[in-house]
Amino acid sequence: MSFALFFLLFLSLLPDSVLSDPRATEAALVCTPNNTASMDQRRPFITNFLATLDALSPLIARQKYAAVINGTGNTTVYTFGECMKDLSQDDCNLCFAQCKTQILRCLPFQRAVRGGRLFYDGCYLRYDSYNFFNESLSRQDRTVCSTGDFSGNRTMFRANVLKLVRNLSVEAPNNDGYFVGSMTRGNTSVYGLAQCWEFVTGAACEKCLASSVQNVSSCAPKEEGRILNAGCYLRYSTKKFYDNSTSASGQGNGGNRPLAVILAATSAGLALLFTIAAVIFFLRKRVLRKRREKKQLGALLDTVNKSKLNISYEVLEKATNYFHASNKLGQGGSGSVYKGVLTDGKVVAVKRLFFNTRQWVDHFFNEVNLISGIRHKNLVELLGCSITGPESLLVYEYVPNQSLHDNLFGALKNVRQLSWESRYKIILGIAEGLTYLHEESNLRIIHRDIKLSNIMLDDDLTPKIADFGLARLFPEDKTHISTAIAGTLGYMAPEYIVRGKLSEKADVYSFGILVIEVVCGRRNNSFNQNSNSILQMVWSHYGTGTLSEVVDPSLGGNFEAEEASRLLQIGLLSVQASAELRPSMSAVVNLLTENHEIPQPTQPPFLNSGSTEIVRSIPSNEGYSSKHESNTQSSGNNMTESWVEPR
Known about the structure:
Layout: H1 2-12, E1 26-33, H2 39-63, E2 65-70, E3 77-83, H3 89-103, E4 113-120, E5 123-128, E6 142-145, H4 154-171, E7 178-185, E8 188-196, H5 202-216, E9 224-228, E10 232-237, H6 257-307, H7 313-319, E11 328-331, E12 335-341, E13 347-353, H8 360-371, E14 382-386, E15 393-397, H9 404-408, H10 420-440, E16 445-446, E17 455-457, E18 463-465, E19 472-473, E20 481-482, H11 494-499, E21 501-502, H12 504-520, H13 534-543, H14 561-574, H15 585-593
Antiparallel strand pairs: 1-4, 2-3, 3-5, 4-5, 6-9, 7-8, 8-10, 9-10, 11-12, 12-13, 13-15, 14-15, 16-19, 17-18, 20-21
Helix pairs in contact: 1-6, 2-3, 3-6, 4-5, 6-8, 10-12, 10-15, 12-14
């Protein structure tokens, strides 16, 4: 890495001009970032880019312009270079050799760069990931003005500048896209050059230069101004900077021809060294990454092989019709899920884990190591996995009626109306599934992400808890564990948000939110900042004994009022601010199946789901502050450990 950066620094310190006058003075360097590019794309992209630079030089030496395309797909590189038409061929070669070394400052290392363009006063070089050859204007266009003002009659100077550039913009499109000239009035002279790039002709050239005329007025009365557009270049100056008696043999510059050859040879050598440095850097990085991944995946491979869960990638690829869009069931924070049919006719759901997140190994490990050994009617069963192919795949039983969220608030809302009996059955099934995880399985597991979209519904609307990517194994001898937070805003318990204090009572809190959402037919974030939260609304109705009034109106009154009130009380009992006061999930199951008296709940914390602010302080005996720590206020992308998923 340091070797490559050394050459980058060395190249950037090369002189901007030489004894000959190829006008190798840098006007602007513009690097276009593209932070979505993966390292796998950047490596071939850089290789293709360097190849286009090599291919440009002989073409420039022959015709003063060149366009080269190299690569395929999203690693294709388009590169273009051109000299000003007044330059001799020797000066053109010299300018372009300098340009090639400096454009490398736009080559990506630690960050992704989609393209770069370098404007010299004598030549131009650009590369990008799309075909820009006939592009006339772009967002990256620049207007560059000198610092010094004209010392004479500024009004006359400004008038001369504007008249000159207008003349240039009219004449250049009719003169092979190039024109030079001067304007002298009132003892004030100004010189100018306008040139459209080779593939920008006709109306496109006129459009580009017309835009240049509009923008150049912002420079006058500065002594010099340059308009650097995607399709053209325009410059004015108080000094004559162009050569309108160009000779192909380089007359007037012949004495400096050896210098041009030396610099061109030096530039080519440095470019070669830079290429070698880049290759070494990426190979070393790849080796280190592979070594790290091998260490991480070693334990997973052992687990997969011992559990006999392994299914070949090719089988799963064919089962999903090569992950065709028509088979896509949905997408979550950790990956996309596809419907597949195995060779024996069994229908399955296949999850492709996202590799662009650091937690994919943890997610895969959790699913395989924690969940593969447990079976329960209210848990989605893991059937297999693939870890040896180009991406990690998890194979689950296929659950046809999609998620609880889809049925209550999504695409299936108008297709299937969940009856009161179905809702009660779903809530009870979720409670039984959590009871199994917390108390009945061989492992004590906390799910950490109980929410509507992670509850799948089978043919008969039996609920199945899914997505164990954030699950944590809970030691038998611990009352809680401390960990960086992970989960979904609106469902996370206050003690977990504020202090990272995790216990099974965090799942109980999430369950309580889910119960209230299912009964009320209203999402926990379906209110604005000036409205009361769903918890506050239900708590208010609890205080007035009118809980049945908040039941989902789409049920049309087809529910048992007393049963609905009991469910909402259980929900309030589960979301109490103090974790110690929340019931266990086995106690919740008893309350749902037996006619036991429900304890009186204490007031819940009112959480604004648009942020993580706790509106009402958590009880002092819990020792929590009344504000969410800053690192959990993000509404950004999914992260594991120290992340929250926005709803």
